[in-house]
Write a structure and sequence with these properties.
2 copies of one chain form a homodimer. By secondary structure, chain A is mainly alpha-helical. Chain A folds into 2 domains: 97 residues, no CATH class; 330 residues, Na+/H+ antiporter like fold (Up-down Bundle). The interface between A and B is large, with 65 and 65 residues.
Chain lengths: 442, 442
């Protein structure tokens, strides 16, 4: 038992790996979050930076096979391998299993985050700002896509398909990062906050449709119209269906929760519903987080809201950091090193993409109509962070051969910087408005 | 994207599988738990039965590769395969990943359960009943081991090594099931409850040492004395170290938690500590749950206890059912079918093992000294459920060739029945004492 481990013995070692990874994630998230808070920045920025420190860019404690890492590249696996006396083949299999578990835990983390954001949002408020949010979303997709694609073709002589791919990667706002920062700043329920969240949701749906179009264009050279129609119908049906549910299902939910007698009588039906909606969204090829957000919106309409809110908080507290730290850990900052010759072209393109990414979303603030005194700058800034969807574009683009190395690196740099710049900027944007109207927000 | 999925696309499908599995688990746990409660039985019994219904014995919604199941044996995978259009190879890989994730979630569930039980237990109370618990544990290991081994050799002409293996499988009480039932009955903090929990912890350690002895005996024909000494020293150092920590570390913990400003300021340090202790226990080849229990005991000594307790409850509510439902789902009741000829010999041996398993633990109640008015029957009954450790013995025994099919089936039947009989019996045992002393417990 002490010497080498066989297949059957790997269960406890995978568990040990997961526990060790979670310990590292929690330490990184708390150290980063607290330091960030101490210098008056949103804690989530510190969690992302904490992830970068323990991830592929620096300490190599947490790395993922999708990033091309092997078991031997993971410092944590090296420790585990020495403790458990694993041979390299067993280590590779433990590394794979452990990474899979952590990836799913991170996805459950962002699902719970969006469920919580949904619970904190107000369906009626969202509907009130629905048209404004839709305009912000559409402009925020079209502007950076058009400017990015045309600019790459015109200034950098990039051919059409890779330029369209890179342009598409500029479209989708990271709803997770934006909503978390808004919540931390206490602005989630403000009119600006609700427009940003609503627009981020719509823009996420648009981003998925754009991805489907671009991916089929890159693969076959033409657009699969049927798939696009399918996605558009699915997305509309899903969002409208959720609002419909929000008005009728919530009573049944309360009736069920009231009849249950055993432990978890509120939280288990709530999570069953949230996971079901996430599954549904996932199955119709939207993102699981959209389903969780919709579930949160629906349950926010019930009179169990406050109790549920209180119970979801600790669950979110232990799951959400796994998402943010692993987002940071997956980033490889070595693409930013200007000494490496092949990075240089990427960095120049990246500079262009970042300008387009920021300006393309900033303008959306000024498209909000009928709201004279609104903080337009804050809305624009709130739409800036790109996060994981941009990375998905870069990954699929590289895998399909549509993107060459410099262009792929440029997209990654753009995602990193928009993600890391948005939290402090958003803080600033709301601070300015608070300074202007101290009586309103304080 | 709609047609077949390649390796890179499997992430979302694994997530969909995990979400679907969790939905089934939650539905099974709530339906089972509520029905059980309605007929005045402990809810955890219903969760186990719910697991049996959705598991390998009936609906085949949740099955595991370790049980010899393929993707095609899982009804849930069949649904997923149809939805996502997976080819059989991709389905096999998704099934494997998804099962791994659910297994680890179940293990995290029992870790959180034992952490919570530790938080609800009182180190000083446990120390007060320490000697009694140790005697109960030792007798509860020696009696069924000796009676089982000798009886199998004498009555059933089983040769020495398999008889010793089966005897050893009778030793370890399932601390998870016992402590959950005690908590549900409101008897965790009673003197009887603390003796049972203390004895179950010690007996778990003894069981692990017995397993190491028996496994090396079965593999090499002789006992690896060094490994046994290593385990005994490790276990003693770990338990004494935890008590030591309990007296000194708790102040540092409060000091750290008090200085933190961001969300999860109590629950993240607490889980970091619990996971660290679980990791440590796992690494020195004890069980992770022992570490989590020790962590709970340590943090119970702090003045953050109540706040932490409140925050751990919803986390336990969503994770613990995953453990109990999968325990039920892994059970294959087909070994109980008396029509199958090869089950018949197993069932006869099983009847013998069950009698030994129950009597061997029941007697422990009468070994408690210096406690005149204690409910001895309840203590004996509390030690009866065997649960997962017994299944580990059966699995290792079968893999090493020490156990033949009827004997392995007999052990599994013994585990099933002791696990399912104990909750209602325990309920009865405490009810009787309540009827006798209505002024004390009522």
């Amino acid at each position: 038992m002490l010497a080498t481990a066989t297949e059957a013995d790997q269960g406890p070692i995978v568990l040990a790996g997961v526990l060790l990874t979670l310990i590292v994630i929690y330490l990184a998230s708390k150290l980063g979050g607290e330091l960030s808070k101490a210098v008056d920045l949103p804690p989530v920025l510190g969690e992302l930076v904490g992830g970068v420190v323990v991830g592929a860019s620096a300490l190599h404690l947490i790395v993922f096979p999708e990033g091309g890492a092997q078991a031997a590249d993971s410092l944590l696996m090296t420790v585990l391998q020495a403790i458990a006396g694993l041979d390299p083949r067993a280590a590779a299999s433990v590394f794979e299993s452990q990474s899979e578990v952590i990836s799913v835990l991170a996805e459950l983390g962002v699902i719970v985050l969006l469920f919580e954001i949904g619970l904190e949002s107000d369906l009626r408020e969202l509907q009130k700002v629905g048209y404004q949010a839709a305009v912000v979303a559409v402009v925020g997709v079209v502007a950076p896509f058009a400017a990015g694609t045309v600019g790459l073709m015109f200034f950098f002589k990039v051919s059409a398909i890779p330029a369209i791919f890179a342009g598409a990667a500029l479209t989708a706002t990271s709803i997770g990062i934006t909503s978390k920062v808004l919540s931390e700043l206490g602005h989630l329920k403000s009119k600006e906050g609700q427009i940003i969240v609503g627009a981020a949701v719509i823009d996420d749906v648009l981003g998925i449709i754009v991805l489907a179009v671009v991916a089929s264009l890159a693969k076959t050279g033409e657009v699969n119209i049927l798939n696009v129609i399918y996605l558009m119908i699915g997305a509309s049906a899903f969002l409208l269906g959720s609002i419909f549910l929000g008005k009728f299902f919530n009573k049944s939910f309360v009736a069920i929760a009231d009849r249950l007698q055993t432990r978890g009588k509120l939280v288990i039906p709530a999570f069953t519903f949230a996971f079901f909606m996430a599954f549904l969204a996932n199955v119709i090829q939207l993102e699981a987080i959209l389903g969780a957000f919709a579930a949160g919106l629906v349950l926010d309409e019930t009179d169990k809201r406050k109790e549920l809110d209180r119970e979801v908080v600790p669950i979110a507290d232990i799951l959400v950091p796994i998402f943010f730290v692993t987002v940071g850990a997956r980033v490889d900052l070595s693409v930013l090193n200007p000494v490496v010759p092949e990075n240089q072209q990427g960095l120049i393109i990246a500079a262009f993409l970042i300008v387009v990414a920021i300006l393309g979303k900033l303008v959306t603030g000024w498209t909000v109509f009928g709201q004279a005194s609104i903080n337009r700058f804050a809305i624009g800034v709130g739409m800036i962070p790109r996060g994981e969807v941009g990375l998905v574009f870069a990954g699929i683009g590289a895998a399909s051969g549509a993107l060459d190395k410099p262009l792929q690196a440029a997209i990654i740099v753009m995602v990193i910087l928009t993600t890391f710049l948005a939290p402090p900027f958003l803080r600033l944007a709301f601070k300015e408005s608070a300074d202007k109207q101290p009586d309103l927000i304080g």
